[in-house]
Design brief:
single chain; alpha/beta; 5-stranded parallel sheet; 4-stranded antiparallel sheet; globular
Length: about 210
């Protein structure tokens, strides 16, 4: 079952999103507030992806994303926003989001982003038996875990895919465009700034000194 939480307080937008997801075979759980979304997440531990609007009364989408990440690194998070300011995108990624969609968006863009994230969540089925080691790091594609000096490092799906990509391309200089293609998927259409912010978040977790990355 592919289950998605849709958090959107505007009924017409929520209905548009839900209809298109259901047509594509997803099971959808709906919430019109951040408070309700957190209740549903607690009652539905099998949710794979949370699609969250940012601008909400009460608990906003950023706070919902941070709460999800405090409890799970496995759930995929996509933020919906009507804003295009750089700070909102950075805040979203630093809150734990894997991707974002700027309103207004088409059904094809919505489904492309959701499908791409779901494929990343399902990669372990094709990666059976693969374990990468480099320096102090071990990346196990079966258990979807990363350790540094045998100490677990909690990574989001995107952060894990970045580590996997680096392990598979040792001594190769990867451009931002290449990382977008390999991690977020071909034809993603996202900005290269997406890579920068997620790399900053990853360095905060794996580097001894994030300001002087090795």
């Amino acid at each position: 079952m592919r289950k998605i939480l849709v958090l959107e307080d505007e009924a017409t937008i929520r209905e548009f999103v839900v209809i298109n997801l259901k047509r594509s075979g997803y099971t959808v759980v709906e919430a019109d507030s951040g408070e309700r979304a957190l209740e549903l997440l607690g009652a539905n531990p099998d949710i794979d992806i949370a699609l969250c609007d940012i601008m909400l009364p009460g608990i906003d989408g950023f706070e919902v994303a941070r709460t999800i990440r405090a409890n799970s690194q496995q759930i995929g998070i996509i933020l919906l926003t009507a804003k295009t300011q750089e700070t909102d995108k950075v805040t979203g990624f630093m809150s734990g989001a894997d991707d974002y969609i700027t309103k207004p968006f088409s059904p094809s863009e919505l489904l492309a982003r959701v499908d791409a994230l779901y494929r990343r969540l399902s990669l372990s089925m094709r990666d059976e038996g693969k374990v990468y080691q480099s320096g102090p790091f071990t990346v196990d594609l079966v258990s979807r875990t990363c350790t540094k000096n045998n100490v677990p490092v909690d990574l989001t799906q995107v952060e894990f895919m970045l580590m996997k990509t680096f392990m598979e391309n040792k001594n190769v200089a990867l451009s931002r465009a290449m990382l977008l293609d390999k991690v977020w998927g071909a034809g993603h259409g996202g900005e290269e700034k997406t890579v920068d912010v997620n790399m900053r978040r990853l360095r905060m977790k794996i580097e001894d000194d994030p300001s002087d990355p090795k």
